[in-house]
Amino acid sequence: MGDTDDIFLPGIKLGFGMMRLPRRGLRIDVEKVGRMVDRFMEAGGTYVDTAFIYPGSEEATRRALVERHPRSSFQLATKLFATGVPTRGIARSEFEKSLRRTGVDYVDFYLLHAVMEGNWRTYERFGLWDYVADLKRRGLVRHWGFSYHAGPELLDRILTAHPEAEFVQLQINYLDWDDPKVAARANYEVARRHGKPVIVMEPVKGGILARPAAKVRAVLDACRPGASPASWAMRFAASLPGVARVLSGMSDEEQVADNVATMADFRPLDARERAALAEARRLMGAASDATGEVPCTACRYCCDGCPQGIAIPDVIAALNALRGGQGEQVARDLYARAVADGALASACVRCGRCEARCPQRIGVIKALAAAAEAFEGATP
Ligand code: SF4
Ligand code: SF4
């Protein structure tokens, strides 16, 4: 089994995901991000994760982190996005742009981004594995790996074909642990078999696990009174052997404080706590089966490619509000906001681009048809 610590700076296991940053109006609130980053670093945080495709994130990372903290005090991760079919030439310009935007002259962790069934051949066809390995040889990248959203068979095939990949980033959280679509446990076991350190993404499932239903909350509170729901989710991921960092896409200072408190004084889950989480998982799974809520993590990877400009995750959030019993008015208000920023759900032309990009493999077309029917009275 590979050593999970030798490529990481000493520090807490919490990684700062710069994906859901706070905004003031349409712009990222860089001043606030700076305060959040400072708090994270003071607590021993060293790993900061951004990506070429997170809008405004690489620039915000430069201003909040790179220009304000010594280069040796953090490790910066960013990612190459292949879904838009980048040839080697496009890949090169993406990487150069990432360097310019983040203000660094080398990247500590460079990832092939969101490798999945729909795009892994693109990475192969254009030789992008060799491309990132070459960046490492030239000292522009210190370590490289990939983030992954598909099943264990493909992961095994990729790691067998590319044993030089140094780490894998996987979606792992207690709700998805045995979910056949996400295959969190199976993917984790493959990565462990190949001796790769694991970086965890979506430990709180896009915030879903931070807001559990009252019934679930009661189970967790009975076991550990006062612990936040997010702290349970973070501890689940961080307790797994071989997990080197757990990323949290933090959006405000309270979330930083909560995560830092959990991870700076980290205690792995004990048997009683694991049993409580298993019960929470059972209740949540049964509830979402019953309501039909759509497990969208609001990553927004789908939005760019939509020719109709539909604010897909916002429409899905409105549908989930309706199905999850938040009340019709709340759901209608959310839908009105979603279509103020984008097109009506009924404008979907079923081209399928969003579904090809969705790491959660959500049936977006079906969800939008349901939203159109519920909120516009449109017949699917
Ligand atoms: S299927 Fe519909 S929502 Fe998805 S990208 Fe195409 S038009 Fe947009
Ligand atoms: S539908 Fe999929 S790609 Fe789009 S925001 Fe939700 S999880 Fe992300």
What do these coordinates show?
- There is one protein chain.
- The chain has 380 residues and is an alpha/beta fold.
- The chain folds into two domains: 271 residues, NADP-dependent oxidoreductase domain (TIM Barrel), CATH 3.20.20; 65 residues, no CATH class.
- 45% of the residues lie in helices and 13% in strands.
- It has an eight-stranded parallel β-barrel with strand order 1-4-5-6-7-8-9-10, surrounded by five helices. It has a two-stranded antiparallel sheet with strand order 2-3.
- Helix 7 links the parallel strand 8 and strand 9.
- The radius of gyration is 20 Å and the shape is globular.
- The termini are far apart.
- Bound molecules: iron/sulfur cluster (2 copies).
- The site of one iron/sulfur cluster (SF4) has 16 residues, from helix 14 and helix 15.
Outline of the structure:
This protein is an alpha/beta fold. It folds into 2 domains: 14-284, NADP-dependent oxidoreductase domain (TIM Barrel); 312-376, no CATH class. It contains 15 helices and 10 strands.
